[in-house]
Design goal:
Strand order of the largest sheet: 2-5-4-7-6
Strand content: 15-25%
Number of strands: 7
Low-confidence stretches: 17-24, 135-154
Shape: globular
Mean pLDDT: 74
Oligomer: single chain
Radius of gyration: 20 Å
Helix content: 10-25%
Distance between the termini: 17 Å
Structural class: alpha+beta
Order of helices and strands: HEEEEEEEH
Length: about 160
């Protein structure tokens, strides 16, 4: 049986991490708010599927970004049933973010404000990851976690 030397494993892990770090650079996110949509239009995807062909993702550290940051976020708010004469409303905000409430990306938090409005806040760190209803995390970090887990299982 061939044994793999610990230094070799560490070198491979460092190489994978370095590859992921080099390709990261400035993250690009979609930036819009359903509050800014003209009356009768849904450009930010509050009621219909978000249309990526009508938006250009911007670099979070550029002058175009309303909020500089290192990852993307999507905030959804929805009124409770019976709110404003049973006319439920929904709001979506997509933008760059610099600090997540949880301190991690690739997760969603949700809750209900005191006035009954439901909110969901999702953070992600991949380019254009705030475009869909389900946010996607970077595959590279998942693969690194798998390699580290496999190495621990192999040696211990």
């Amino acid at each position: 049986m061939t044994t793999i030397n610990r230094n070799t494993i560490q070198a491979v892990i460092c190489l994978i991490l370095a590859t992921n770090l080099v390709t990261v650079g400035a993250v690009r996110c979609y930036q819009c708010s359903s509050d800014a949509d003209p009356k009768g239009e849904d450009n930010c995807g509050a009621y219909r599927t978000f249309d990526k062909t009508h938006h250009i993702a911007i670099e979070c550290n550029s002058e175009e970004s309303h909020m500089p940051g290192s990852f993307c976020m999507k905030l959804t708010q929805q009124s409770p049933k019976g709110f404003i004469w049973d006319g439920r409303w929904r709001q979506v905000i997509r933008r760059c973010a610099s600090v997540a409430d949880t301190g991690v990306t690739g997760v969603c938090n949700w809750g209900v404000y005191e006035n009954g409005v439901y909110w969901e806040e999702c953070y992600c760190s991949g380019d254009e990851c705030n475009s869909s209803t389900r946010l996607k995390g970077p595959l590279g970090l998942i693969s690194v976690a798998f390699v580290i887990f496999s190495v621990k299982m192999f040696f211990y």
